[in-house]
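Appendix C reproduces, verbatim, an entry submitted by the partner laboratory led by Prof. M.T., so that reviewers can inspect both the input and the predicted structure.
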Amino acid sequence: MTDVDEHGRPEPPVDGDELATLTGFLDYQRATLGWKCRGVDAAGLNATVGASTMTLGGLLKHLALVEDDWFTFWLFGRDRSAPWNTVDWAADHDWDWHSAAGDTPDQLFALWEESVRRSRASLAEAMADGGLSRPADRTWRDGRAPSLRWILTHMIEEYARHNGHADLLRESIDGSTGE
């Protein structure tokens, strides 16, 4: 039984094995983003702070891309799915951030939640095919391939960094604070 905090976030296990600990922290960070973005209308999801163009909606769409990119494109070498496969990334390398303004809150949450669902399925598939040491099918330019362990750790870092941004954005929208 996983303990859940007052914001609906599952607490990472204090005595789990390596996989349970890594996925526990990743799920906690995912739930933190959801907490910071839920209950915010379209105007709030498009609000910025100071000189930054970053928005909560952009964070949701960017992290949906990052989920699909690491757990599908890199880990298994699979083609990108919609909407990522229709984007001219050379024309707008920040399309995920910019295009979020045209999406409704429901569309953004559905995209992000479906990406997380696919990531979890890919993680289970990779664990059955080599475990945490399994190398990604795609390699970096220098020929190295990150392991599933590296990908999970990177995803925790990615969410943790962006959750700091989400804290500032959410506070500027309605004064909500916390972690």
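Helices lie at 18-37, 42-45, 56-76, 95-99, 105-128, 148-174. Additional entries are available on request from the coordinating office.
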